[in-house]
Give the backbone structure.
Amino acid sequence: MAGKYTIIMAAGKGTRMKSKLYKVLHPVCGKPMVDHVLSQVERLHPATIVTVVGHGAEAVEDALGDRTHYVVQEQQLGTGHAVLQAEPLLGDKTGMTLIASGDTPLFTAETFEKLFAYHQDKGAKATILTAQAPDPTGYGRIIRNDLGTVQKIVEQKDATPEEARVSEINTGVYCFDNQALFAALHQVTNDNAQGEYYLTDVIEILKRQGSVIAAYQMPDFNESMGVNDRVALAAATKVMQQRINEAHMRAGVTLIDPATTYIDADVQIGADTVIEPGVYLKGHTVIGQDCVIGTHSELVDATLEDRVRVTSSTIESAIMRAGSNIGPNSHLRPQADIGPDVHIGNFVEVKNATLGARTKVGHLTYVGDATLGSDINVGCGVVFVNYDGVKKWHATVGDHSFIGSNSNIIAPVTLSDHSFVAAGSTITDDVPFHAMGIARARQTNKPDFWARLPLADAPEWNESTPQD
């Protein structure tokens, strides 16, 4: 079997994006555009993947890591010149080379695989990936003869009126015989208005040599959508969102309103989970089976085990164990670990803390840098005071403990198993097993308080004054 190789073009700056971020790094559903292309290419298992970088080379390499080889196009001298930079890595290889652009995030591995197969079946030296465009304006046209054989690619500006009416367009993806590709690239000239070396000129060169030039027409034009500005970025994102959402629904996930559900490409969701409208699932979030993610929740790199319920809350780089629930309007920050069957109520924030099984934190509470055991009740308005202005400190609460409302737990401190904190206490010392910690001023009632005040300061009492 012939070897397979891939070149991804990612050297352009993308001035029409009007951005400091290089074009191919603009995200579509949570991943840079070029990462989408690379991810699909990787599914083909090519022998070598080469990414041509130029503008923002270091940023592109940081985004893609060691998943690909890199070559640098120092000067932007056209697409043919860009591909030629890969010759030191691929020039002596025998087989087929796929060339794709880093700003076309919607192509699938299935389409690339079909292109390879068609190219090999036709015995072609070059195969162009084409599509029928609803509006071909701006695209290069595929001109065929009466037998359906490709004659040439005509750019919009060079097309005759008859050629301009052709709706079959060049998607900018090609499959070449590898050695024929690099041999022809050395014959390409820059004798054109732009003074650039065009990859499409290779097609003409190979055709003049009598080589077979084929064209594989893919069924879905949307896959070929390139991104050159923010309008196209939004359009590509919408197509990708629909594709992702449909895949989850077919896998057994219920999306109440797919049009208002936003799921990144790498998110995993188990069967029989229900996602309500207005939910954002981002990054590498993993959700188990039989979960419910309520309206206007946002999960970023979160892990939810089975049967978790999230109600209008935010979860970042945190984990919720099986059967736990949160919300509404609560926030799990990084390194929060919520144990099985734990209840997190409304307006609760948890950061870098572990909560054991069946612990309840009902409302208006901050838990930071703490380890809470199982079967603990944390009352309303409790604050784990973890920062002294210089250093973060840790607090530990044992199993079956009770922390009364409006208490402050001043770390570092340990509350042993079965300990009790009286409401309104500020705890600065350890509380032993079975003990109650109480740290508040003793109540004093002042008799005849109002009688001691000057007459002008006393309230005016009358029959309509509310009485306790």
